[in-house]
UniProtKB/TrEMBL annotation:
<dbReference type="InterPro" id="IPR050109">
    <property type="entry name" value="HTH-type_TetR-like_transc_reg"/>
</dbReference>
<dbReference type="Pfam" id="PF00440">
    <property type="entry name" value="TetR_N"/>
</dbReference>
<dbReference type="InterPro" id="IPR009057">
    <property type="entry name" value="Homeodomain-like_sf"/>
</dbReference>
<keyword id="KW-0805">Transcription regulation</keyword>
<dbReference type="GO" id="GO:0003700">
    <property type="term" value="F:DNA-binding transcription factor activity"/>
</dbReference>
<dbReference type="InterPro" id="IPR001647">
    <property type="entry name" value="HTH_TetR"/>
</dbReference>
<dbReference type="InterPro" id="IPR036271">
    <property type="entry name" value="Tet_transcr_reg_TetR-rel_C_sf"/>
</dbReference>
<feature type="domain" description="HTH tetR-type">
    <location>
        <begin position="9"/>
        <end position="69"/>
    </location>
</feature>
<dbReference type="GO" id="GO:0000976">
    <property type="term" value="F:transcription cis-regulatory region binding"/>
</dbReference>
<keyword id="KW-0238">DNA-binding</keyword>
<dbReference type="Pfam" id="PF13305">
    <property type="entry name" value="TetR_C_33"/>
</dbReference>
<protein>
    <submittedName>
        <fullName>Unannotated protein</fullName>
    </submittedName>
</protein>
<keyword id="KW-0804">Transcription</keyword>
<dbReference type="InterPro" id="IPR025996">
    <property type="entry name" value="MT1864/Rv1816-like_C"/>
</dbReference>
């Protein structure tokens, strides 16, 4: 696309695509506005009109990643069916698998999502729709009697930490599952144990 043919929104999206390709190749450390501009075929000055710093571009890429995660989580939980006694485990396993899959498909973008530019003042990115999906899922399971409502406080942090922790270990090659087990098996195990810990008590 010639430089003169970019519309305002088109250039921003083009820079995001180039930025995603850069972090996909080498993680967030690989990214620069100058490199994204070069890939998009525009001047650095034009790119800086949309992203005035490297951190601004990283933040925008993190938002793209969290939106994809939100959509993946919503799709995953929408397809879960089961009886009350096992619906919580099935749902949390679906959440964990979707989380893991998003990270495995785009590890560079996943690491970008959790950089300091994404949510510098938060333990987890509570301002992103993906986290809201998780909170809504847990509230729904508790309302249906599939989770103990008395244990609901902080459950979102527990589930997110479990999913993120295992995913990070897998991405960093820190989990030895042996030759016959896939990462999804480990996620099912972890999320199954989490579901059991939140199950209704007598």
């Amino acid at each position: 696309m010639a430089r003169s043919s970019f519309h305002h929104g088109d250039l921003r999206n083009a820079l995001l695509r180039e930025g995603e390709a850069l972090v996909g190749d080498g993680g967030p450390e690989r990214l620069s506005v100058r490199e994204a501009a070069r890939g998009a075929g525009v001047s650095s000055a034009a790119a800086y009109k949309h992203f005035d710093s490297r951190e601004a571009l990283l933040r925008a890429l993190a938002e793209v990643g969290f939106e994809r995660l939100r959509l993946a989580l919503e799709e995953a939980v929408a397809g879960v069916r089961g009886r009350r006694r096992d619906i919580a485990e099935a749902t949390l396993r679906a959440v964990g698998r979707a989380y893991l899959q998003v990270a495995l498909e785009r590890p560079g973008l996943f690491r970008t999502m959790f950089g300091r530019w994404s949510a510098p003042d938060a333990v987890v990115p509570v301002d992103h729709g993906a986290y809201e999906v998780l909170q809504r899922v847990l509230d729904d399971l508790a309302a249906r009697g599939a989770l103990d409502a008395r244990l609901l406080e902080g459950a979102d942090l527990v589930v997110w930490s479990a999913a993120h922790g295992l995913t990070s270990l897998v991405l960093d090659g820190r989990v030895d599952l042996g030759p016959d087990r896939e990462p999804a098996w480990a996620m099912d195990l972890v999320m199954g144990r989490v579901a059991s810990s939140l199950a209704p008590r007598p």
